[in-house]
Task: structure prediction
Amino acid sequence: MFENTTKLLLHDIENLHEIDVYIKNGGYEAFKKALKMTPDEVINEVKTSGLRGRGGACFPTGLKWTFMPKGKEKPKFLAVNGDESEPGSFKDRQIFEFNPHQLIEGILISGYAMGIDAAYIYIRGEYHKWIRLMQKALDDAYESGFIGKRMKEVFGTDYSIEIYIHKGAGAYICGEETSLMTSIEGDRGYPRFKPPFPAQRGLWNMPTTVNNVETIATVPAIIAIGGENYAKIGAQKHPGTLLFGVSGHINKPGVYELPTGTLLTDIIYNHCEGVLGNKKIKAVIPGGSSMPPLRGDEIDGVKMDEESLKEYGTHIGTGGIIVMNEDTDIVKVTLRIAHFYHHESCGQCTPCREGCGWMEKILKRIVAGEGTIKDLDLLVSVANNIEGNTICALGDAAAWPVRGFVTRFREDFEKYVTQSRVFKAPNIVHGRRNTADTLIEAV
Amino acid sequence: MEDIQEIRFSEEELKEIEMVKSRYPSSKSAIMHVLWMAQKKFGWLSNDVKEYVAKILDLPESHVHGVASFYTMYFKKPMGKYHIQVCTNISCMLRGGEEIYEHVSEKLGIGHNQRTEDGLFSLEEVECMGACGGAPMVAINEDFYENIDIVKVDELISSFRNKI
Result:
């Protein structure tokens, strides 16, 4: 299954979602191999591989695992993040549908390495179908004794783990790791402060690791081919294969598994067969809607890995590439993104709750032709005041794209605001007394 | 016109709830699953339903109200038999999602989170559903319909209308 090292997650094998087919192709062998190693050796193998989290933050997975306390005094949990709500991301559902057993095997190996007692796969509520598919795979694995109490007779190990699915109900914020945990605990999905980090106090105050579905599904591949070999794939500082979900104005949208460091133009023009109607590219969002966009004229030579994208002031995120052609109205796109974050802000922190609303209102005003040139700086200023001032990263996720679009496509915004504007509120002539609110009231 | 239905889970459903509770160290964690079950059985989460869920899980009613109102997929009012969810987020918007939303809204004469008078359809403008590769998309109840256009959405609506 892992001979072809450019495809480690979505293999070209028919019916791989069925447990028999998966076993026939070498499935669950990586877990058997891991059982012959000590848990620390497994963690070291993952460290050697250089695997970095696929949920967007790119944190080294092996290092994260070492934060978990050793010993058995407390129960330990693993939360697998399949909330996948970032606009432009649709990769995890491919794993649920086409390779669910590799995810299960990944949970077994990660669980063995960290001494996990129970794992919860958090899947967004909208994925009814994929929850059913994943549940089927879990049921089959339970029936074969690969999970749960019968692991001793099947694998001859004293280690055992329970795996459950937790179904979300439509909240973007639950993709944030602490929010995901409060959601599993049965509360409103409010993020909590870090520290304490999940490895100290996670689910029910017990040591917990939260990893993305794609991250965990990659683990069997690492154990099978060895960490050193995995580290050789793709970009040196961000190795491996990545599921790129390409959408927008593109001829062949879809999920493509490619090594990190693949050229963005290679993905767009070769793998996805170019832009719809052969038009020019105006903008590309490289990693889901919360990442700052790239201008169409700067995508040449951009490599799709975290370190390369950092040089362009953006990030790999979830690998959700959104392509926009030259006819796209960037201001309306920005408004749509701002609306999304306003809608999804959980409301705990003032900068995010109020700031996201402000950004949406200001953008609405600009789109309505009633904005002023000052509004553009106001947008950047609001974004700057959200970033870093909130409990979780949703604030940053809302601020980055707005600031990115306004600064990188300023001429598009200026076109909207240079039209003359009639002030309706009397105090607005006193420019210095303006607040966003009085301006908003005026519209 | 709502069916008058006693708010009570069957023995089998109560067993399922016990099974779900056993998956977690604290039975509070079962709340999302139980709310899903309640929505499926009773159609939407009325105050009576939420109070019943609170009683079953031995939780304060206010907590159940809080959780139910936090998540957008729990219905706070009766929805149509066929709940049409049109995505207008960025990937769908780029490929005509907003036009599809406007079209459905006009055709059915209802707006966001409203339902038709006959109770057959309700409409929701949803955020990204994770089907960006098949944009534009709509979801009707639990099923995704990807790569659609106005003609296909019309066909879908009439096929559901003919199902009654």
Q: What stands out?
A: Confidence is low (pLDDT under 50) at residues 426-431 of chain A. Residues 350-367 of chain A form the longest helix (18 residues).
